[in-house]
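Handout for the seminar on molecular recognition.
Each group receives one record of this type.
Step one: identify the two inputs.
Step two: read the structure output and locate the region that could contact glutathione.
Step three: write two sentences on what you found, then compare them with the reference statements printed after the record.
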Amino acid sequence: MAFRTMIPYSRPHLAAAHFVTAHVFTASNCCTKSSPFPIRLVQINSIKARRYLGLQTNTEKERIRSLRTTSPSSSSLAAASVQENIPPSLEATSEPPPLFDGTTRLYIAYVCPFAQRAWITRNYKGLQDSINLVAIKLQSRPAWYKEKVYAANTVPSLEHNGKIIGESLDVIKYLDSNFEGPSLSPNDPAKKEFAEELIAYTDTFTKTVFSSFKGDPIKESGPVFDHIEETLHKFDDGPFFLGQFSLVDIAYITFFERFQIFFSEVWKHDITAGRPKLAKWIEEVNKIDAYKQTKIDPNEHLETFKARFLAK
Ligand SMILES: N[C@@H](CCC(=O)N[C@@H](CS)C(=O)NCC(=O)O)C(=O)O
């Protein structure tokens, strides 16, 4: 396991985390059966260092313990974190992978919020080894993608058992129903119904926000952000839309990631101001590894959005 990030040692919790990690991994590599010293003996107490390492803090452990008591199948007991090397994007001149050879493939573009939904779902369910990521460069899409993979020519799409599934919301539901890993759908009928309602609302939500960019964004998108805030008050057994982390959170977070930075940088507006549940929700989703691994440089979102929505 290699660290991809440079660690600023001026930030002591990161330095502490890095020190401990380096030692744990070095020690675990040279560890023998007769000398199983390191991992079990290392205690990491700093909350920030534990978060950085993807370990639960004591508070989080408590919360999970209580969730276990109330809901043994709780989806917040996410699959173990897997760091993977993400593949380079294929472009017009790239050869296709050996299509329909029995391999399951998820076609995405790193910048795309729709594709990111499917990518998070795959990661959360721990399917990194069974579903290959194929990244496509949208501005220079290979012709074979439209001709041989997905005639709609959009991402995401999923190649599975000789067929292609498209449309991000269908893909995430398909992944959740047809693959192993922690469930991202509630069992409770009331929550199930609410989940469908919320998933259906993503379209209205995103379209309202996107069209507000042409007018007065803060005023015109205010009601839909308020609606999300109210919605987050509905279940109090966790910070997520249905209490526990689910497909609903995945359906929304990729757009919030972009909207938050765009409003902040362009209109100096904090979309979470006066919306405490929304602020908490964003904070909690940002602790989920399956999501963290799909995030790209916020400046890239900013540039994409500026070019798309502010160019004269
Ligand atoms: N409704 C589709 C939208 C997918 C979509 O628009 N993806 C964009 C990238 S973010 C795309 O592939 N655009 C290429 C195109 O429209 O030609 C979904 O949810 O999957």
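Reference statements: DSSP finds 13 helices and four strands in the chain. Residues 36 and 117 are 40 Å apart (CA to CA).
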